[in-house]
């Protein structure tokens, strides 16, 4: 059987897709108990009878989580239900300690919304939102042996710290008509959701830590024949690629699944409705379990929790806290900062927008902020193979570093050394400059001595300068900078050299 490419699949079929985005909320405690909601703790140290589902334990709804969910729903253009219930979603999986998940079923708090997604070329795509419902997260499985995935593993370990963490699951309506831009739209949609939750302050949005995860549903249907509307062509069987946790992977998962399904269909084989495991190392998916329907979960109302009934006054109060749409904010900042379209796209792709904006808010110029975050700091992040946001440096510290340059206390070379110290945990930029002795040497007596020594060592250069070849002064500047470990004020050094040579600058 000939394997299809994504491009060939798009020529032969009409893709239909939907995305379920799971957003972990950054509340201090879990959804229904008082356990800490913190990432990175020792396994199974943030658990209690409630989140483990032990007999007799009684859950209590986290009000802050409800507030965050409503704010997110409003940002997605959703209606807010006046009364909604939690339900028990029953299924067995090792990371679900009590064999059911508390979720919302037929009465989600947030429903019927829409979100404008802006693509790189400025095209705006409206994505319909079916619902945004609250639920609790499951624990985390670690598969040991084999390739690190569930298939081929020797055994699995379960960490229940994540079990009970508050989630909002955002479910799109079926998205049609995107054609060969399907993967691009899917990526842009998830990126927009991530930007929104960060702007709301309800999640750190760190996909690499699972704070935002996406399940990608995709099916292919035949293209309409002459005289037939594409809307009348029924959807095909869909696959659901689970827990895709990077924007790049979202795009690649769509590419792989479209090509896989097209290969099957053109080969006369059926597509099985199932969940699929995403493999980052091979950019491929493998079968999981057959995809359940709602009735398979045997939903019934959670008997231990009261309905969620937000007052209209509270909802309107929360509506006033909704920030600017990320796309509109990017367009405004690009104009304010004077960035080109390409520069802004690079900033967004590097996940540096919020960091640069916070640096600019301190009074630092946008170009200076961009220089640091997109230059030296991006290089360090790449070398360490971590996200830019994970580096141990703050926008305030970058602003302080640039301030030292603007005041003439250090130059760019010394600033990079100071930044190295900040990243190593040696203190603030000012403290590192002081402890490492990095401040620029601007004392004329010290500079004059260094210039005289350099001129004495290179008399031929002095002669060239005196003959009118002023550019030769660069050799002396370099010698002085070397002698002072890069701490001399280069501009003042050049002035002194020309004075010694009796030449006008």
Please summarize what this structure is.
By secondary structure, the chain is of the alpha+beta class.
Walk me through the topology.
Elements: H1 6-12, E1 13-24, H2 63-75, E2 79-80, E3 87-90, E4 100-103, E5 110-118, E6 124-136, E7 140-144, E8 155-159, E9 166-172, H3 182-200, E10 212-222, E11 239-244, H4 247-266, E12 274-279, E13 284-290, E14 300-301, H5 312-319, H6 326-337, H7 341-349, H8 353-360, H9 366-384, H10 395-406, H11 412-423, H12 429-436, H13 444-457, H14 459-466, H15 473-483, H16 490-501
What report would you give on this structure?
The protein has 16 helices and 14 strands. By secondary structure, the protein is of the alpha+beta class. The chain has three domains: 6-313, no CATH class; 326-436, no CATH class; 444-501, Arc Repressor Mutant, subunit A, CATH 1.10.10. The strands form three sheets. The protein has a nine-stranded mixed sheet. A three-stranded antiparallel sheet has the order 4-3-14, with no helix packed on it. The protein has a two-stranded antiparallel ribbon with strand order 7-8. β11 (239-244), α4 (247-266) and β12 form a beta-alpha-beta unit. The protein is elongated, with a radius of gyration of 29 Å. The termini are far apart. Its EC number is 6.3.5.-. This is Aspartyl/glutamyl-tRNA(Asn/Gln) amidotransferase subunit B. Residues 275-295 are annotated as: Disordered.
